[in-house]
Amino acid sequence: MTSTYVHGYDPRENRRLQDQASTLVELLHWDTTYPEGSSVLEAGCGVGAQTVTLATNSPGALITSIDVSAASVVEAKKAVQAAGINNVTLRQADIFHLPFPPESFDHVFLCFVLEHLSQPVEALSALKYVVKPGGTITVIEGDHGSTYFHPDSDYARRAVHCQVELQARARGNALIGRALYPLLTKAGFGEIHVSPRMVYVDSSKPELVEGFTKKTFAAMIEGIRKPSLESGLMSEVDFDRGIADLYRTAEADGVFCYTFFKARAVKN
Amino acid sequence: MTSTYVHGYDPRENRRLQDQASTLVELLHWDTTYPEGSSVLEAGCGVGAQTVTLATNSPGALITSIDVSAASVVEAKKAVQAAGINNVTLRQADIFHLPFPPESFDHVFLCFVLEHLSQPVEALSALKYVVKPGGTITVIEGDHGSTYFHPDSDYARRAVHCQVELQARARGNALIGRALYPLLTKAGFGEIHVSPRMVYVDSSKPELVEGFTKKTFAAMIEGIRKPSLESGLMSEVDFDRGIADLYRTAEADGVFCYTFFKARAVKN
To answer: Is B8's pLDDT higher than 60?
Structure first.
């Protein structure tokens, strides 16, 4: 069941992630640039949806991007090559068994990774181990509990909650965005600063209506139809009405809200 | 039942509103200043919690502040006098029966008012009638559906929902913040711009933990204990656990999120 909804494992999902990154790229990434010559570990790069942005925004940094899935690393290599980027080294590796000596990197970056891990604090601790003292960690996560919309709909809210429940059953956490501060605290980082990045969409923003409400969020929930119905979380009729109600929020009088959280902290 | 929870009718509630205004004043009001000599109608000023800020930020504007409650107007007069403000005229008046000729004001301002009205579009239309062409309306509202926190708690979420339900039964709408764009559209305003103002609170922000999470939000929900229990919306045990869980989010590893919405639009 896990692999039917975890990001990055089928072509449509890949496209959705790329759409998401290009729609949200400014909101999420504008303030992350690493200095010339600095070494950066991108942990959990998946198919490279964020890697291209990261490398483009820090052309002088030396970026090492890892993912636990060898298949994703192959895709990420293609994405990086297609973008003509040459400051990224890609390799298959596990956050919990990092093949790097202690204090190997100036900085660590991870985006949409912790939500999939059953031991996020341990992951952050493992990453802290390979950062130099004074180096930073940057973490970006969504939070599906931050979703609300107009017109409101119990069906739509329940459909969104299917994703939260499926991710919890796969030992992930779709509500992790709000918890970045305590997670980084527990992992022993200092100078933690959390910056919420709210996506507010009304019909005065047609690019976000199309690129976020419909193609990113509603499409993601639509994508978990099969496991949601198979798990008996909702009836087919109710789920489909929830999806219709999500798309309804993309009409002229609709509003859609979602919040990402970006945290930056220092290894003391 | 209405008067047991509607803002501004008892001393403790007044203090809470004043606390709220002084804690959130920068977040909500920093970008509202009216030019020297401009005439501004503040509709629904209540006990003057926002009036003092409004007048202080626009010392050259001529502000007329109205409220439907004569008792609130008396309190607002005291607040304005205590602050040494002399550019505000206070009077009792009803938004739906405004005692002003058409196009009397350069601008209109209202804050935490529409949430209490069963006919928000009609209220906005009535206010539009007294604004000069090219003048603006500024609207600020909260949205209790934007509330989420860590640690998450079903009891706390249900306690918050009691407020939503009580306000709905009083023909108000505690979820109105997200709907400002469609409401202003329906009332015929143009150039509508909605700006969400998210309050994100973790323990690195002790003033907000104290001033917002505890003294504003948790205190507000605690304040509807009696009508919530009397209405049978929650059992006493569950409600009290919800309140305890809300205060729990103010501890060192807790996080609290809430979003206000501020809209500005033009009468064409």
So the answer is: no
Residue B104: CB atoms within 10 Å = 16
In this prediction, residue A27 carries a pLDDT of 86
Buried b (16+ CB within 10 A) or exposed e, A221-240: bbbbbebbbeeebbeeebbb
**Mean pLDDT, chain A, integer:** 93
* Bridge partners (DSSP) listed for residue A64: A41, A89
**Structure token pair of residue A124:** 């952050």
- The complex's ipTM works out to 0.91
- Separation between Cα atoms, residue A224 and residue A81, nearest integer Å: 31
Q: Best of B27, B144, B147, B148 to disrupt the A interface by mutation (most A CBs within 10 Å)?
A: B148
Say what the pLDDT of residue A11 is. Answer: 52
Please provide the size of chain A in residues.
268
The nearest alpha carbon in chain B to A184 belongs to B253
Interface test with A, best of B178, B184, B201, B266 (most A CBs within 10 A): B178
How far apart are the C-alpha atoms of B43 and A62, rounded to whole Å?
57
Mean of pLDDT values over A35-46: 98
Helix (H) or strand (E) holding A226: helix A225-230
Backbone φ and ψ for A197, nearest 5 degrees, come out as -125, 95
Asked whether the beta carbons of residue B181 and residue A175 sit closer than 8 angstroms, the reply is no
Gap between the Cα atoms of B50 and B66, Å rounded: 12
Question: Rounded to an integer, what distance in angstroms lies between the CA atom of residue A118 and that of residue A133?
Answer: 27
Interface mutation vs chain B, best among A139, A178, A180, A205, most B CBs within 10 Å: A178
Give the single-character DSSP code of A12.
Answer: H
Task: Return the structure tokens found at A76.
Answer: 């990420």
If one counts every other C-beta atom within 10 angstroms of the C-beta of residue A203, the result is: 17
pLDDT in tens, A175-233: 999 999 999 999 999 999 999 999 999 999 999 999 999 999 999 999 999 999 999 99
Q: Give the 3-state secondary structure percentages of chain A, helix then strand then coil, rounded to 5.
A: 45, 25, 30
Q: Which residues of B touch A178 (CB under 8 A)?
A: 148-150, 255, 257
- Contact assignment for A255 to B192 by CB distance below 8 Å: no
**Chain B residues closer than 8 Å to A145 by CB:** 148, 152
- Interfacial residues of A (vs B; Cβ cutoff 8 Å): 143, 145-146, 148-150, 152, 175, 178-179, 181-182, 185-186, 192-194, 196, 198, 200, 202-204, 253-255, 257, 259
Q: Up-side HSE of residue B251: CA atoms within 13 Å toward CB? A: 10
Q: What pTM was computed for the model?
A: 0.91
Residues of B in contact with A203 (CB under 8 A): 181
- How far apart, in whole angstroms, are the C-alpha atoms of residue A191 and residue A264? 8
pLDDT (tens digit, 9 = 90+) per residue, B115-155? 999 999 999 999 999 999 999 999 999 999 999 999 999 99
